[in-house]
Design goal:
single chain; about 700 residues; alpha/beta
């Protein structure tokens, strides 16, 4: 029997590892390709990804909530008609901003672009944001402020293979993106993490700050770099502005003060700086551990300041970068599903950007809405006076992923209309009034942009099951029912991409010189890749940013004058411990895909909490016991795992589980005022043993 095969990419993290998918007699298998970021390797999530394609509970047909409160099968015409009719009624009564859109960082570039266009043109609503606000917003805000543009890694992943020293602040790629570790094997690692993660196990130096004190540590490292003579003053004078203002904040963070606040010994602070400064090739990388705080953008800025003082960004063999998490976390935030942005990473408040995009869309600029509100605030507004009455969710599961998940669920239950487009049932689809079955990774064409800004082709191996449709088809079906011409919302991915390229032209993330023909020919194209006047000599793309200048008008990077003020919530007598959340190697995001894979579910079947043995003894918790972890917002049940390497004042819970094991029942919805990212990494909690509930 003939074998059908395509070259594509893994559906999970932002490495977007290259894969070959094969299908024979209905069975799908995967093998890694020699794509540069994975070098022929895959993590266990990638190896088992095809199992999700055949999930027994895959969504095959639309479902509508009946008068009896149940979801029942329906036809596409009936489902789309009901949605459009309800939207028309809500907009007529309460205005366009009564309808919200919640997108996802796993959507293809074409879907993310069309979703933003649908919100602003078909609905006329400003109320659109996406789940990248929960993970990438702080780094994006700090990167834009410092460099004039945000690209997770402004250099190819492969550059890291030549590094001598890499500082990882709040990143754990050994678990979250294992193939990346192939590029870090030759480097001496400095890892900042309150627990001894799998990455910290491989580190030469492990710094364990108290959760919520990462910025204080960054300020202290900057202080040491300057006072001990490691400051590259020639680079600072030539390539940056704002050093004096930043130094005025950092000057008070002498090492002993930093040790008192963070718990990181003075000797370890000095060793970290010396390792970075003396290396022939060094990088500073940040991850969610440093970003998901109420001062997340300032914290990232603190580590960027350190990199700038040492002269790393824009210097060959050195640099600063952010480890983007979601599969299309980079492209997903560039093309319009973010509350304050238009395609090409343009600001929605920029008159020239608005005029350019409106012209591509064939609408009047004055009809485009202004900026919306961050994802957490969007969800919190549901059913409230002046808030959204309807929400359309594409490729996300906010009932689990939002902070203070209990509140998010309560608010969503107050909506007049909740529509969810997804390919698997989730906590959010179970609350929906309308569920729309859509295609997943191996059933669709499109593009993704990985963490190094490289635009990649996703290719279809299988036809969609049942009556599942592409999100592009869904958006056109709704748009035409809302009065838009059919031609304004194309469904062919290459056609959508060509329009996206035109809309991005001249923007920070310029894709105008990229097309499917070049991508299918195997060209490695990193944005910006503008269209050239001579089409016979196309732009080669920009794998390395900032070598000549930064993206600000004067060509210089900006130091940020930041200071540490502590997390929004401190421990107290009732909640004496700090809970922090994160990912583990066997699961991804809210786990809706990976928890359906037998091998992964067997290895990590339930939520757990890591805590120090001394903490467990004081709280009467035994290893393997079901534990009750409580904050001012809710309670989570998780299996206790004793870990002598974690700080005694800290608990760790994974984010991948639902029900009573949902870690976000604990987390604080306070937002970083600059980026809108929630404070997932610090919650004051208590822990105690819990009784087992036997079926």
């Amino acid at each position: 029997m003939a074998r059908h095969q395509v070259a594509t990419h893994c559906p999970y993290c932002a490495l977007q590892c290259g894969t070959e998918l094969s299908e024979r007699a209905g069975e799908v298998s995967v093998s890694p390709s020699s794509f540069p970021v994975n070098r022929g390797g895959l993590c266990r999530k990638g190896w088992t990804a095809p199992e999700v394609l055949g999930s027994a509970d895959r969504l095959h047909e639309p479902q509508l909530r009946t008068g009896r409160g149940e979801l029942a099968p329906a036809g596409w015409e009936e489902a789309l008609d009901r949605i459009a009719s309800n939207l028309d009624e809500i907009i007529a009564e309460s205005g366009a901003d009564a309808v919200g859109i919640f997108g996802g960082g796993g959507l293809t570039n074409e879907k993310a672009y069309s979703l933003g266009k649908f919100a602003r043109v078909a609905l006329g609503s400003s109320r659109i944001d996406y789940n990248g606000r929960f993970c990438m917003a702080a780094a994006a805000t700090a990167g834009n402020a410092a460099f004039g543009v945000d690209r997770g890694l402004p250099f190819p992943v492969t550059d890291l293979a030549d590094a001598e020293v890499i500082l990882l602040a709040g990143g754990n790629p050994a678990e979250t993106m294992p193939p990346l570790m192939r590029h870090l094997e030759g480097a001496r690692l400095v890892v900042i993490d309150p627990r001894r993660s799998a990455t910290a196990e491989r580190a030469e130096l492990h710094l364990r700050p108290r959760p919520g004190t990462d910025l204080a540590l960054a300020l202290g490292l900057l202080h040491i770099a300057v006072t001990e003579g490691w400051h590259d003053s020639e680079y600072t004078a030539r390539r940056t502005t704002g050093f004096e203002q930043a130094w005025a904040r950092a000057v008070t963070w002498w090492p002993e003060r930093v040790e008192r606040v963070t718990g990181v010994p003075v000797s370890a602070q000095r060793q970290a700086v010396r390792m970075l400064a003396r290396a022939r090739s060094s990088y500073v990388l940040t991850g969610r551990g440093s970003e998901q705080h109420g001062d997340g953008a300032d914290t990232v800025a603190g580590f960027i300041n350190l990199a700038l003082v040492l002269g790393l960004p824009g210097t060959r063999g050195h640099g600063y970068g952010c480890l983007t998490g979601q599969g299309n976390g980079q492209g997903g935030r560039e093309h319009g599903q973010k509350a304050d942005q238009l395609p090409g990473y343009r600001s929605i408040t920029d008159p020239r950007a608005r005029a350019h995009v409106a012209d591509v869309w064939g609408v009047a600029e004055e009809n485009l809405p202004g900026p919306g509100i961050p994802a957490t605030r969007l969800l919190e507004s549901a059913g409230s006076p002046g808030g959204i009455r309807a929400l359309l969710v594409f490729g996300a599961n906010p009932v689990l992923s939002a902070p203070h998940a209990g509140l998010a669920r309560a608010q969503l239950s107050r909506l007049d209309l909740l529509v969810v487009a997804d390919f698997l049932p989730s906590e959010t689809t179970r609350m929906a009034d309308v569920v729309l079955p859509v295609t997943q990774w191996a059933e669709e064409e499109g593009t993704m942009t990985n963490l190094e800004g490289r635009v990649l082709r996703r290719r279809a191996l299988l036809p969609p099951p049942g009556s599942a449709r592409s999100d592009l088809d869904v958006l056109r079906g709704l748009a035409t029912r809302l009065g838009q011409p059919e031609s304004r919302f194309p469904t062919r991915p290459s056609t959508v991409f060509d329009e996206l390229a035109r809309a991005s032209a001249g923007g920070a993330a310029d894709y105008s010189g990229i097309d499917y023909e070049r991508l299918d020919a195997g060209q490695a194209l990193h944005w910006p890749c503008p269209k050239t006047p001579d089409e016979q000599v196309p732009h080669p793309g920009t794998p390395r940013l900032f070598l000549d200048s930064f993206a600000h008008p004067d060509g210089k990077a900006r130091f940020a004058a930041v200071d540490w003020h502590g997390p929004a919530e401190d421990t107290n007598h009732e909640y004496p411990l700090v809970a922090t959340t994160g990912r583990i190697s066997g699961h991804y995001q809210t786990g809706e895909q990976t928890r359906r894979v037998g091998e992964l579910a067997t290895a990590e079947p339930e939520s757990f909490v890591r805590l120090h043995p001394d903490t467990a003894a004081r709280r009467g918790v035994h290893d393997g016991q079901l534990a009750r972890v409580s904050s001012a917002r809710g309670t989570t049940l998780a299996r206790a795992r004793l870990d002598g390497s974690i700080r005694p004042d800290t608990l760790f819970l994974p984010i991948h589980y639902g029900g009573a094991g949902c870690a976000n029942l604990l987390t604080n919805p306070v937002l970083d005022p600059r980026s809108g990212i929630p404070e997932f990494k610090v919650a004051a909690v208590s822990i105690s043993g819990a009784e087992e509930v036997r079926a």
